[in-house]
Amino acid sequence: MHRQACLLAILAGLCTAIPAAADEAGFLQPLNGNWTGTGKVLRKIGGAPINVSCKFNISAPGSSISMKGNCRGLLVVNRPISAELAARGTRYSGTYIGPSGAASQLSGTRQGSVINLAVRWARPVNGDRNASMTIRRQGGSQLTIETIDKDRTSGKSVVTSEIDLRRQ
To answer: Quick check: 87 and 68 in contact, CB under 8 A?
Structure first.
């Protein structure tokens, strides 16, 4: 009898895990395609924001997402940017390669239409290696990517980049 109870518990766990993966695939799949947009980026907290224009190609097969693109600022600076995320249930993990070219670690969860991620920079940025990133889906044709860092002087959270994208 104990063996049957264990088997039922395992099967119940597997059955509940499958819809979670399907939910993430359903959330991510509409992001497939080409996206362009504009935004602002701070090179350092307290500095002047730089206007950027960005282009991304997003591939979202199943419960993973790959974002590859570039952002151009100051008319001459063009930097590749990419992110690779995989979902297990509503938990996400992966890497982000920003303008520095170094791979940083991402981990977090999705709540509603927002993926909330902790960022562990490859090297110190604004005095430490920690920040946060959100990827907010707004319907099927808008996407906002935002990074937030802490100002070590004031202790306040500062938006260090905000990019608004539209499907092409």
So the answer is: no
Residues linked to residue 69 through DSSP beta bridges, in sequence order: 56, 81
pLDDT in tens, 17-26: 434 455 899 9
Separation of alpha carbons 111 and 17, rounded Å:
17
Q: What angle do CA 50, 53, 55 make, to 5 degrees?
A: 140
* C-alpha span between 166 and 157 (Å, rounded): 26
CA 140/CA 114 separation, integer angstroms: 13
* pLDDT 10s digits, 108-139: 999 999 999 999 999 999 999 999 999 999 98
Nearest Cα neighbor of 121 from 161, 167, 68 is: 161
